[in-house]
Amino acid sequence: MQIAAHEYGVVLESGAVRFERLLPGPIERVWAYLVESDKRATWFCGGEAEPRDGGHVALFFKHSQITKETPPEGARKMNDEGSLMGGTITAWEPPHRFAFNWVGMGDPDSDVEFVLSQAGDKVRLVLTHRRLATKSRMAMVSSGWHLHLGLLEDQLTGRPPGGFWSVHQALETEYAERQKEAEA
């Protein structure tokens, strides 16, 4: 698997990872893919977002909507039937900032923040995910975001979606190794 160095998430501190991508705009279009259920479901998960600070965000994961690849046995139920999680919106600043507390992914809850800014004719997306309590969760979440952001880029550029399950385990292993290097 050939991945450009700038595509990897960066460990900020213990339990936090940040990703940055330059995406085709306009910024309102990228915002729509973050907050509108039908658009978000094409690269990450569906679910309505109540458009205000303190509002509820539903996160309905059904990976068969984003990839036709056969999932590993442990992910089959989420892939085929779906899984509902949610959270509380902590920042709603269209079209620049969307953040939420994610409930249901593990203990403790975690915090996700998307920040969009104009970068010439592109849109800079910065994703930060904090409060990832264990090294295994950090590696799993990092590889997941890496793949989901690749699918977002595929959606925005009109490319066919890249692999997901076929590269997930190798990428998770790579993130675990990268974390060891960051701690050294």
UniProtKB/TrEMBL annotation:
InterPro entries: ASHA1/2-like_C, START-like_dom_sf. CDD domains: SRPBCC_CalC_Aha1-like_6. Residues 26-154 form the Activator of Hsp90 ATPase homologue 1/2-like C-terminal domain. Pfam families: AHSA1 (PF08327). Coiled coil: none annotated. Belongs to the AHA1 family. This is Activator of Hsp90 ATPase homologue 1/2-like C-terminal domain-containing protein.
